[in-house]
Amino acid sequence: MEIPTAEVFYPFRRNGLLLHIGIALVLAAGSGVCFWQLSLQQGQPSFLWLLLAGILLLFPLPLLLYNIYGLFSASYTLERDGLRLRWGLRAEDIPLQDIEWLRNAEELGFALPLPFIRFPGAILGTRNVEGLGKVEFLAADAQNLLLVATPQRVFVISPADQRAFERAFRRSTEMGSLSPMLAYSTQPVVFLRQILADRAVRVLLAVSVFLLIALLVVVALQLPGRELVSLGFDSKGLPREPGPGQQLLLLPLMGAVVLIADFLAGVILYHRWKQHLIAYFLWASSGFTSLLLIIAALQIS
Question: What is the pLDDT of residues 210-220, one digit of tens each?
Fold first, then answer.
């Protein structure tokens, strides 16, 4: 029986995606409401509380968005010459001869310890397990785990069709490798270093961060002399009623949110689809946004 050139297996992603997307939407909506209320503030007592709540609600979003991206991109590709694991920015190519054994977690005889920090639908991280050594998880379902042992570590995966994966693996080992797969491994941190090795990226990010800091300085210099400030316009196109001067802090906060969002989106484009020009454009646009906010801060009366 011939095995296809490559058989691609995926983790069960629906529950994890629904959960992560749902939580991300709730947090983003809650943060948006807080910032919207801040723009309408006429008095000062609740300003700092709303600002803190808006920031705290935004804080988990990058991790949730990365988990969503990881689930969308997750795959276990079994070839005649080896196994390719993909999860977000994590990639591992394992030559067939380096796979020592494949085993269901239920066959271990003990409960496999999961990573300390994990999310439903995204079980990621490493643990040192007695008898196994270093164990790395790239799984979505804690009830459907397969262990792939290599000389360096044990990988834990969760193909939705576990039986089909095991059958395909047995066929590939029976037929043997035609030509050795080159071992390959990359971590998110390593990939970020590769991005920062690009001089254009370093310049764009440095300019964006500098302009964001400049925006913060401009706002900080204006705050002491401003008890009231008017931000935005009402439905008739007229300036809103003045609110507390602390509302100016919304400008650097907006700049920071744009910078983080553009950076994450640019990293994904740069890595997955090799769209370097679009990534450059996103990283440049965050600096341009900060520049526009600086001009706005200087024009606000």
Answer: 999 999 888 88
